[in-house]
Amino acid sequence: MTLAKPTIVLFDMDGTTVRHLHPALLDVLERLDDAAHKGAKFFSKVLKREIAAPPLVEFHDGERPKLLVHRAIHKIRRKEVGQIVEPCPGIYNILDFLKSHNIPMGLVSNGLGKGYGHDILQKFDLAKYFDVTIFREDITRAKPFPDSILQAIRGLTRPPAPTDIIWYIGDRHKDVTAALAAREFVPCPIQPLGYGLNSSIAILERNIGVDHIVMAYPDLENKLRNLFRT
């Protein structure tokens, strides 16, 4: 798959837009998230019906999911987001470049928005770049399901057309899986880009193409400038 010039770009948050100052915390969150997904698949097989949400979910007032594990971790940390994460090096150059070309952008995260994701957007002045933000409490099924990506696309200022090219940039294997799964439901191509080692392995496993691997944002900036020259 040849990397094409994007007309819409979606970003993952943790590990992609911001990086953790203490990577062990991110690793714990990601492992819990993966375990919840595997648990849902296991109970789906045992009960012979689809379990869309992880088992450790409590429904408050019969509607909004209260994500017990995620909320517990964020309460335990007891630190401001500025002490936990920082913007990934070079991310502002990417965001500024895309914004200067009027490319709609969205943020799609498995992390909580309340008390975390929204604080990050405010702390690092990132909110102005994104037309839509989707966090864990906004959806029932998190990545690797495509739901959050599809909801972000629906939340853009305009629906995608067949001529659009959507990039989804993420740092985990499940980001690549979710982007590929979302293709079935949109009228245009979705191209996953792997930022860092974990998602890059997924890119290679799926034979998507080495030009979809991003090890550092200055490299992606060069790719973007070349694409927008053509």
Describe the structure.
This protein is an alpha/beta fold. It folds into two domains: 8-20 and 84-229, Rossmann fold, CATH 3.40.50; 23-81, no CATH class. 42% of the residues lie in helices and 17% in strands. The protein has eight helices and ten strands. The protein has helices spanning 23-47, 68-77, 91-100, 113-123, 147-154, 173-182, 197-205, 217-229; strands spanning 8-11, 18-20, 57-60, 64-67, 85-87, 105-108, 132-134, 166-170, 190-195, 213-214. Strands 7-6-1-8-9-10 form a six-stranded parallel β-sheet. Strands 2-5 form a two-stranded antiparallel ribbon. A hairpin with a 3-residue loop joins strand 3 (57-60) and strand 4. Helix 3 packs parallel to helix 8 and helix 6 (173-182) packs across helix 7 (197-205). The chain is globular and about 45 Å long. The two termini are 18 Å apart. Residues 53-64 have low confidence and may be disordered.
